[in-house]
Design goal:
Length: 341
Amino acid sequence: MKDSYRQIDVGLGERSYCVRVGPGVRHSLAELVAATGARKAVVVSARPEEWTPDPGIPYLSLRARDGERHKNWDTVIELCRAFADFGLTRHDVVVSCGGGTTTDTVGLGAALFHRGVQVIHLPTSLLAQVDASIGGKTAVNLPEGKNLVGAYWQPRAVLCDTDYLETLPHRERVNGYGELARCHFIGVEGIHRLPLVEQITASVARKAEIVMADERDSGLRHVLNYGHTLGHALETATDFRLRHGEAVAVGTVFAGRLAERLGRIDAARREEHRTVVAGYGLPTRLPADVDDSRLIALMRLDKKAVAGLGFVLDGPHGAELVTDVPEKDVAGCLAQMPREQ
């Protein structure tokens, strides 16, 4: 089986782990669970039973509810109470099997229960495979904004089984392309020209490289949020009618426009943002009904906005965090963005 998948190692000392990418890698779950030394497991799955592998030790199966509406504190408490009722200890293991919201809520539950229980992720959506499952960020939403309550908790392993992608509805598959499109601007130029499995592998490898250099988001890791400042605001402003990858896609186009307005890139590079995003079939325009002042207010809540508005922007030295971006430039750029009809 080793020849059928790619493995990326995330080297973080005692917190190191492997990410396997390829068809059928979910079947190595029992092997990786055995390596943890756990005596029992809780498997939290948003997928049908036949798509959820047996962890190889006694386990409790819980149904997950994928979707941003369930990515909240109540879900985390429900999970932790189920862990307690099952008698899970800090030496046991939790397994998530689902999309990005499942990965985030289960990861946060594992991080908090007994102050930390081992977790293995089986991301089943393209979005989760290229982003949410890698790097140890776990979080849930508040009514005030996206991912405002969370913790860093690295998994013991991640299994990106590409067979899962065959089960995705068309819109959900395209949604995942949003995180791949932004990779073109954060160090994986030309990623959109690769076969999909190679795109996933390249995206994971780039994220692993960044996480190893900056595990706790104090510097370089900010570049992973390319397109996310406006993207997160759009998700909240549309009550998640716009999905994460779709919102990040629009945010990526906006980042190109803002970078040009600030004199960091030229018009050709700005247009490259739009063409790469559009090439994936992703949206490039703002929704017709969102209010610009509401978006700016939401962007002030972004975790990068320590002083004023902050965006990860392209520039002569590549993508980097730009702080204290004048609000008039953000407002002007929003006003000039094309809108959906």
